[in-house]
């Protein structure tokens, strides 16, 4: 390639590069703010009566506030990361323990499952257990239970006495008053063994028990 052609090519490249423009931005960091402030100082005329010293003081104050806000944000991000690590360590300590989680159902493991019910008043209670297909596999009448907390255990056997496989079973609950018609308000919770703990990139923490996953916010208590 001839020298003239090389020169022409370089000139074209320089022109294309210099013609490239950066789009406007709606935000500015503290470095950009300081550059604007310095440029303003360079172009000020101290002898001009139009100069407002109060405006300069306000701009300097704004720069200081911006810098402090960014430092505070950095500090808060560091504290958030530290707290996330603490929460993860605490959640990991639950592995192998039994926890009470908000919800209903039987999580059958090794032929054993438990579920809690909290009654607003004394009631006649019946648990109806269903498999994953929605079939009724067992009916567990509990008789009259007092108000407050009661724990219902299930050995995993169906209505014919056959042992059912481990897994998750849905439970529907009926609680009626002395007249046998009036529904009594209640809340239910599960007792499950924590097999593992999962952490997501968003910071969410979940406990896993068998095939079930519960967010940490659903954990009501931990036992040995």
Automatic annotation (TrEMBL):
Transmembrane regions listed in the UniProt entry: none
Record-annotated FlgD Tudor-like domain positions: 89-219
Protein keywords: Bacterial flagellum biogenesis
Classification via InterPro entries: FlgD, FlgD/Vpr_Ig-like, FLgD_Tudor
Compositionally biased residues, Low complexity: 7-25
Pfam families on file: FlgD (PF03963), FlgD_ig (PF13860), FLgD_tudor (PF13861)
Disordered as annotated region, ranges: 1-26
Residue span(s) of domain FlgD/Vpr Ig-like: 110-177
Leader peptide range in chain numbering: none
Family to which this protein belongs: Belongs to the FlgD family.
Function: Required for flagellar hook formation. May act as a scaffolding protein.
Stated name of the protein: Basal-body rod modification protein FlgD
């Amino acid at each position: 390639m001839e020298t003239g052609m090389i020169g022409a090519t370089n000139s074209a490249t320089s022109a294309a590069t210099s013609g490239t423009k950066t789009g406007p931005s709606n935000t500015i960091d503290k470095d950009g703010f300081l550059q604007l402030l310095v440029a303003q100082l360079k172009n000020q005329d101290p002898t001009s009566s139009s100069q407002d010293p109060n405006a300069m003081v306000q701009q300097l104050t704004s720069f200081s506030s911006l810098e402090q806000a960014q430092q505070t944000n950095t500090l808060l991000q560091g504290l958030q990361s530290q707290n996330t690590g603490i929460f993860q360590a605490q959640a990991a300590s639950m592995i192998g323990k039994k926890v009470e989680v908000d919800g209903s159902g039987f999580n059958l493991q090794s032929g054993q499952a438990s579920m809690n019910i909290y009654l607003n008043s004394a009631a006649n209670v019946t648990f109806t257990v269903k498999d994953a297909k929605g079939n009724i596999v067992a009916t567990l009448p509990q008789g009259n239970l007092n108000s407050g907390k009661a724990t219902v255990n299930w050995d995993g056997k169906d209505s014919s006495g056959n042992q059912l496989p481990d897994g998750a079973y849905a439970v529907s609950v009926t609680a009626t008053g002395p007249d046998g018609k009036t529904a009594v308000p209640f809340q239910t919770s599960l007792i499950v063994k924590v097999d593992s703990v999962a952490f997501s990139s968003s910071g969410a923490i979940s406990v896993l028990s068998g095939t079930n996953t519960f967010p940490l916010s659903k954990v009501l208590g931990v036992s040995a």
